[in-house]
Amino acid sequence: MIVRLIPRLDIKGPNLVKGIHLEGLRVLGKPERFARIYYEQGADELLYMDVVASLYGRKSLLDIVTRTAKELFIPLTVGGGLRTLEDITQALWAGADKVAINTAAIQQPQLIHDAARKFGSSTIVVSIEAMHKPDGRYEAYTDNGRQRTGVDAVEWAQRAAELGAGELLVTSINREGTGTGFDVELTRQIAERVPIPVIACGGAGMVRHVYEVITQGKADAVCLASILHYGVVRNLPPSERDVAEEGNTAYLRSGKGFSRVEEATLPDIKAYLLERRIFCRGALRESANAIV
Known about the structure:
Shape: globular
CATH architecture: Alpha-Beta Barrel
Order of helices and strands: EEEHEHHEHEHHEEEHEHEHEHHHE
Strand order of the largest sheet: 1-4-5-6-7-10-11-12
Number of helices: 12
Oligomer: single chain
Radius of gyration: 18 Å
Number of strands: 13
Number of domains: 1
């Protein structure tokens, strides 16, 4: 079995941020620094998500994308605030290989069809942010988990695939940032109903969680954030920390609030999976062990 490991970098303005349940965002540092570390550790792809772009109608991520694409040579997916074919064109011109759309896709499903037709299905990732409800159903949310839609997330996944999406990025709002593990049931329900790859996102706190969502949830790829980010933050030497961010990084380095997350590097995760006969697409780079 071959899967992809994809570091997720949530962006607010010029900074990499991280929250819990997509809320309570804290600054971690400059996204380019983290992207470089993950690239050298052997990331199969990178995901940049502007977490406030849909709310404010901004596309501030493009400058960061351009800088990253010039230096790192792995597939780069960009999401947040992409509402039109022109927005997608700009993201691709900036250096993205794929785009992730959520809010606009639910509001204008025809956008999926039109974008897939113009740019190719392999370029279009539909992002689904799902909340588990008391009745057992999953509801799709938009605007980085802020807005209810009343749309059944599993049914929406099927429709998105039918409209031409090349992949689905499935994020559990309930689990995101908690370190308690992926919503395996959500991932499995969608993976069993669509003929396209499913990327699981939200909840990884241990390496075994990655294994579980691949084997039990049938994910084709896994998006990772907290399990990677906090180790980088706490291991940066003082000379490489941004003074303006000390209030945030000091909190993160203390371990408060993140006791459920067991830090791991991409080589750690790939080695764990390889022992269990699960292979990752990208080969580890020689410099991996020297980074973190």
